[in-house]
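Session log. Operator J.P. requested a structure for one protein chain; no other inputs attached. Running the standard single-chain path with token output.
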Amino acid sequence: MLPVEIAEEPAAALAGDDLDTAGGVTNCHTMPKTKIAVTLDATLLDQVDEWVRQRRFPNRSQAIEAAVAEQVARFRRTRLAEACARLDPDEERALADEGLGSDVADWPEY
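Structure written below.
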């Protein structure tokens, strides 16, 4: 495995859910950046370098950052799906029916 240095320039702070996924690639260009060292399998690094040569990414750092951001987004979606799967459909339906069953006169005025 080869170590990969990732150097980034400082950028403005960004809320955690603001990931731009236009064009199928996640861009995190406005997040604060921190320089780290990453160890990658040589074959994986060759693929990253190929994407950079093809100009799919401007550099290794942005290619790896996009891959990590995509994985974070996928993890967030998975956690939401798992939370939804734990909901009890009968309980949710009862709560919805309770709200619909109230008298319209009891509803707040808008």
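Operator note: Residues 8 and 92 are 46 Å apart (CA to CA).
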